[in-house]
């Protein structure tokens, strides 16, 4: 039977502890086996039976063993802690014991995090491991949760200082001892309780840091609507607390990732969506709704995201938080970077403030030269950057959630976009020295750098904000909106309704809007920069949806097409991600636009350049197929227009002439179908299927669909694999029907981007899937009977 914990001094307790001690020693007279004690404690920790706590041993036994095993007196301290933390205790002595335990663990944790862990030969077991093994973690959880227990109708209370010590010790143990964080994550009532400790400023940062670590390993996402008085809790946070709270929110509002690439297939996503429909909203969706119901929540986030460094909290408050960061190891690397910047700049900032981290001494492992240093302006900037990237992430996730339109309205109303525009040069895309970017253990190009992370998060926010939403015109200023109107007037086309409906009081101010600023830095970006991908995605999102001639010309006049072609052709970009983003952007920029094709032909003015361009296209159709689709659609429209300008472009443009050739179209069609299969379709490569459909829909318009199918059949035979391509295409089209006929958003995107009605998409797929082998436009008519394999079940198991 498991030995039950008993208070020190009780006769029954002494008897049970004696029995446990005998077992641990292998019987009276047995040879001491300290390793066995630890193994039995570990086994008890896993099973909940046998030896689980220090209270099951006598103090004499623990003291004797400590002399040999060098446990730093931790088991004895836990024995005293248990005795002084019962319900009737005043906790004074308890707090003194915590003060004795804390430094034993904090120094070890600091060494662990800063990669300076050098245990002496005498220390066989780290202090944090011994603390956990003898039941310290479970005991601290009980102590922290004492206020949830009623005694004679009254709630017990413990001081903020004592809570702070408990949290500090728990966090240090989580840092150094594997499995502790996961065990705490399984205690759902404890996790929910931790949120209540954030009501106190004294314990806020420690609690938030511990919660963030716990939620990071928790298998099931916590529901914020279960947190007591969530609205009041968040509403009472000051701006610094709210910014730090966003670190926790980042975990609670993002859909959990399985980490398995197979689960990113459209088959798996469709299956998950069907399952979700029966289960109702996910925990992440519930949490997003809970946050949006808090009065003023989004407004405060917008203010945090757009405040200037000079408006941030005063020096004293900032210093206090930096000291907390030094204590709290999750942020130690950030402080390390700030301290290094301070050392470099202190000579130039004679009026700056002296920062003396708590506990800085020879024992702390920090040399005196870095223990006292000056705090320059760059520290304040880095501090603000750390805040903003967390806030922007939360806003970005909310923008992509179910309440997207509601969030869009609020973000526009609270002037997030003009606020970010005002910060663009001085903070978001500021000039800086390389040293200001680098964190401990990283290099200046690492995506973990706060400066780099902020830029990427900013670009992701712009992408989410602009994507298929009329609020995208808030990225411009009044003068630029007038320019759009002038472009439409000159071309004798109606102004875009969304431009006319834009609230001019909410747009960017200053000489340039946010989109123009983005274009300027994009054109200056080094060839190897990782930002190119995100910049192209953000600009492309502005063009997505129904094609706008005015939007295209606005960007063309600023040299965007020439910049893209330079990157693709002259710099011969090798990055697949960057190439894909540039091809997608080029397609949206040129689609149906005669002026764009003229500019293209002017830049690609030699056969050598054109061959380099074609080489880049053909190197990966998954990356370039959207451009192929846009050029194919443009060619079809131009061929049906009677206009001298269009006729001139058709006769001169190398790209249009190349795409117009049937062998070229058939080569693209064959490869597009061949590189995808139902089981490997993802959100990234499903565009290949839709591009192949566009080619066949345009052929159907010209009554050439049977010709294209017959040519595909011949190409199959020439490869000595009759039926393999058309069977695959048949399965892909069956999946297409299942996928798109139940997703309004996707069907709308297909219609808007192609200017082909969705009904025509559906009709074409139905014609191709017609089971009548006599139909000249049915796929089965071109698959010989021995090679027929069209009824395969591709549903997710």
Secondary structure: elements and pairs:
Blueprint: H1 11-25, H2 34-47, H3 59-69, H4 74-83, H5 92-113, H6 127-133, H7 136-144, E1 150-151, E2 154-155, H8 160-176, H9 180-185, H10 188-196, H11 201-217, H12 230-235, H13 239-252, H14 266-279, H15 283-292, H16 297-306, H17 315-327, H18 332-345, E3 353-355, H19 368-371, E4 373-375, H20 377-399, H21 404-413, H22 416-428, H23 450-466, H24 478-490, H25 497-501, H26 514-524, H27 531-543, H28 549-556, H29 560-570, H30 576-590, H31 594-603, H32 607-619, H33 621-639, H34 644-652, H35 654-660, H36 662-674, H37 686-701, H38 705-718, H39 724-740, H40 744-754, H41 758-768
Antiparallel strand pairs: 1-2, 3-4
Structural description of this entry:
The chain is mostly helical and 797 residues long. Helix content is 63%, strand content 1%. The chain has 41 helices and four strands. The strands form two sheets. A two-stranded antiparallel sheet has the order 1-2. It has a two-stranded antiparallel ribbon with strand order 3-4. A hairpin with a 2-residue loop joins strand 1 (150-151) and strand 2 (154-155). Helix 31 (594-603) packs parallel to helix 34 (644-652). The two termini are 45 Å apart. Residues 1-33, 116-125, 258-263, 322-375 and 433-444 have low confidence and may be disordered.
